[in-house]
Prior knowledge:
Blueprint: E1 2-3, H1 6-14, E2 20-23, H2 27-32, E3 38-40, H3 47-54, E4 62-66, H4 74-84, E5 89-93, H5 96-102
Amino acid sequence: MKEISTEELNSKINGGEKFFLVDVLDASSFSAQHIQHSISLPYDLYFLKNFSQKITSDKEMEIIVYCASRDCKTSVLAGQVLEKAGYKNVQHYADGLAGWQAAGNKFESVKPEIRIRP
């Protein structure tokens, strides 16, 4: 699987290129912080099925997977599953959240809903 650098990823995001950036960490991590324009799809036993149903079944689309850092291997596993399923353009952002932050880039977060009791 090809590895993509922080600079290349930043360029793709800022250039408006069409690709899927997939955060494979759990939903609470995604809610706290994620790279802009990324999609949350936690890696689990149903990852491939959920990927094809919720993101794309187009095997030609560019897909970039990431997790927490170079020490986190979850994104490697997710990428391998996609490649074995026939996705042809899978890339790995190995630096993950730690590398994104170290490069001075900002994160997005999901603001929790404020619920008022009736």
